Amino acid sequence: MQLHRSNVLVTGASSGIGAALAVVLAERGATVGLVARRAERLAAVLAECSPHTPESRAWPCDLGDVDAACALVGTVEHEWGAIDAIVHNAAIPKRVPVTALSRAQLAETMRVNFDAPAAMTLAALPAMLARGAGLIVNVSSVGGRAGGRNESAYNSSKFALAGWSEAMRIDLEGTGVAVKLVLPGPIESEIWDQPGNAPVLFEVEKVSARDCAVGIADAMEDGGFEYYVPPVISGGLDVKQMIVDKTAHCDRYLAEMAAFTASLLPGAS
Question: Does the pTM of the predicted model rise above 0.85?
Answer without folding.
Answer: yes
